[in-house]
Amino acid sequence: MKTADIRNMSDEEIRSRIDDTHQELMNLRFQVITGQLTDTSRFKRVRRQIAQLETILRQRELERAQEGEA
Questions:
Q1: Model-level pTM?
Q2: Which of 21, 29, 44, 53 has the fewest C-beta atoms under 10 angstroms from its C-beta?
């Protein structure tokens, strides 16, 4: 998912996507334990996606806090 696509999402959509992605990461961990996962590079992609989502959400929170002070 591109950053521009994430920025066009609402806060609730981003939170929902974060929850879904955390669930996907947990499922990947189970697949590794059971030996079903062959593409281990998915870990890096999923963790990066979580980081992007959380970063954009945090930037919005900081912008709102800054606007409130001004």
A1: 0.89
A2: 44
